[in-house]
Amino acid sequence: MDKNAAIGVFDSGFGGLTAVRELIRLLPGEDIIYFGDTGRVPYGSKSRETIKKYALQDSRFLLSMGVKYIIVACGTASAVAADTKEKLTVPMTGVVNPTAAAAVKATKNGKIGVIATAATVASHAYLRSIKALSPSCEVAEQACPLFVPMVEEGCVDRDDIVVRTMVERYLGGLKGMGADTLILGCTHYPLLTDAIRDYMGGGVALINSGEQAALFAKSELERLGLLSGRASGGSTDFYLSDDTEKFGALAEYYIGRHLDGRVERIDIEKY
Q1: Can the peptide bond before residue 28 be classed as cis, meaning omega within 30 degrees of 0?
Q2: Is 186 a catalytic residue?
């Protein structure tokens, strides 16, 4: 396998850019190819069969670009379509197991909250992963179906009344149980960190699934001898399944830097 090939990342929309941001920080010499399935977002309200189909198509597109490693930067696809890796020719990681491990390490009182899409919550993937690591942990899961559409529309300001209202609506039960650790189980959710922290309080550890997936990928690439060895100069190209017009400004906001790579629309149904 060519260690100079790119790292592939896919998500249902913009959320996976939180993982890309961490990859750029951790591995500035690596090339990255990102696919955002903006034409079919959100995945969290789709059936298991549809999510599995989408995850396989997304992976096939990245493979067609010659990537050496794939990060499923989508909590829903990671939870529901975990068997996709068995059909691929390159290593793959999702967000669930690395994030669960970080949460178990962070909690002090053994009470962990999980916020995610409806499909992810229904799969209980985070619950199973946490319990496998620490059976004594108390885990509460909460679906937050409106968070993804909010983030996709750029509605993330902590002072926005809509943001504050939805955060309070979804997180009330988790705050009430006394969770000291909260998994942001969808890579869109870290864009709401300010509002979530305001509501939950500074003493609650927020576990960013995109960040944890990027950290795990770095360790795996090192273990497999697949790092390029370049200290800097990596490029990042972006591919979407829908209109690219609004992508640039949002991506630059999420990643925190100017986009200097390709931004292109592709027909994902071909894969």
Answers
A1: no
A2: yes
